[in-house]
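Thread: quick sanity check before group meeting

JM: Hey all, I'm pulling together slides for Thursday and realized we never actually wrote out the predicted structure for the chain we discussed last week. Dropping the sequence here so it's in one place. If anyone has concerns about the input, flag it before I start.
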Amino acid sequence: MSRFIESIKVEDQKIFLTELHQKRMNDTFSNFGKECKIDIKSLFLNLEHDEDGLYKFRIEYDLENNFKTQILPHAISEHDDFELVTDNEIDYSFKSADRIQFQKLKEKRGAEEIIIIKENQITDTSYSNLLFLKDKIWFTPKTYLLNGVMRQSLLASKKIKQTEITIENIKEFSHFQLINAMNDFDEMFIYPIEKIINLPKEETDLEF
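JM (edit): ok, ran it. Output follows.
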């Protein structure tokens, strides 16, 4: 049976973006003709979590409303380098617990983390949405594998904009950063575009 996950930020005993996480969970059930009976706020309150610091509240569930929860200390990951990887068939419309397609893409790669290209469009890394900097404005690709809760929140608050980002125009951006439920918009954690080890160097490179 399919299983899904929600990874929710908890910092100093406060839970973040609960409504967006709940909506995603509800929409997942609805897509399969089911009703979600799992209430995120109630689950968190029942944990009686009283520790300060950054934690990940993880809910793994199936479409029969069976679930298990964990709350674990969390640290933001930093990467030395990134690699563009093409997969025109990848589909991650729902936040599935099955991540084997990402694991396969990362095998035998020369960089710590991957940036996935689908039909020539920049999408996501293996675990986050992306932001790219151009002329002091942060943009997120219109194309994505999963429309993450942080991405939705930043667009709604107009802190970022959407634009088309492709293999052809990616070098027009100077920096990028990774965002997800645990990684907020933070200019302390940005990477120069040159951290992508296989950026196209010349027009002719795009043919291969």
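AS: nice. Helices lie at 18-31, 40-47, 100-106, 149-156. Residues 204-208 have pLDDT under 50 and may be disordered.
JM: adding both to the slides.
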